[in-house]
Design goal:
Helix content: 10-25%
Strand content: 15-25%
Mean pLDDT: 76
């Protein structure tokens, strides 16, 4: 059951990591609330190129790191390979087995097969949910930093018999260290039926101790002109994680 309750549909399929089209998907996950640690802060970044707010940390980030990218349900990554490449080696899932509930276990196994001992997991949209399921199933992997870009927190319609994508986050191990990177115009964080607050603050409401980075003016897809801000936020999180 852990791997059976995820559904994705109607995601825009682009030509690759620089696709400028929005991706849409539906995800259903089951779980229960578990406290998260350690305490983190909320960071707000502007999408205005002339007013790029500095991040709190200016620590040096170790180069030569390894990243495994889990794409969206249309196999796009929103440009994450380009964002991550300055930090080291990037390997991405080329194509999911499918996005039906029956494909979930195969998708988790595919992601697991790419993970090395020191790899940082980075998800985009649907891929975030696959990572979350993997971390819930294998708590020993949760000690490392995981980066969730455009997590699809709320479905277009209220889930009928479980809490939806928010639920699996609440069931993650208390050791999980997460960075959420989302646009303030992401429709997956602003459904009419969802509880308040809307926007990236909704992620912080679900996981008060997670780091939530907001990029103003961005939607579900963090487009190319958001890459510098995304890279700075990730660099700050990597530096802080290395200092723990």
């Amino acid at each position: 059951e852990t791997f059976k309750n995820i559904v994705a549909a109607e995601e825009g399929r682009g030509d690759g990591p620089h696709d400028e089209h929005d991706e849409h998907e539906e995800t259903s996950l089951a779980g229960k609330e578990v406290a998260m640690a350690p305490p983190k802060e909320v960071i707000d970044l502007t999408g205005d190129d002339d007013e790029c707010a500095p991040l709190p940390s200016r620590k040096r980030v170790k180069r030569g790191m390894s990243f495994v990218v889990a794409p969206g349900s249309g196999n796009g990554t929103g440009g994450l390979e380009e964002v991550l490449r300055p930090f080291g080696t990037v390997v991405a899932v080329d194509s999911w087995a499918g996005t039906a509930p029956s494909d979930t276990e195969a998708n988790v196994a595919l992601l697991r097969s790419l993970i090395t001992a020191d790899a940082v997991l980075v998800g985009y949209s649907y891929g975030c949910c696959v990572i979350a399921l993997l971390l819930r199933h294998e708590p020993k992997l949760a000690h490392r930093l995981s980066i969730f870009c455009s997590y699809p927190l709320y479905e277009p319609r209220p889930p009928r018999d479980w809490g939806g994508p928010a639920s699996v986050l609440r069931e993650l191990p208390t050791t999980a260290r997460l960075l959420f990177l989302s646009g303030d115009r992401d429709e997956w964080l602003a459904r009419p039926w969802q509880p308040r607050p809307h926007g990236p603050d909704a992620l912080h409401a679900v996981l008060p101790r997670a780091t939530v980075v907001t990029i103003r003016g961005a939607g579900h897809l963090l487009k190319r002109h958001h890459h510098d801000l995304s890279r700075r936020a990730i660099a700050d999180a990597l530096a802080k994680d290395a200092a723990l």
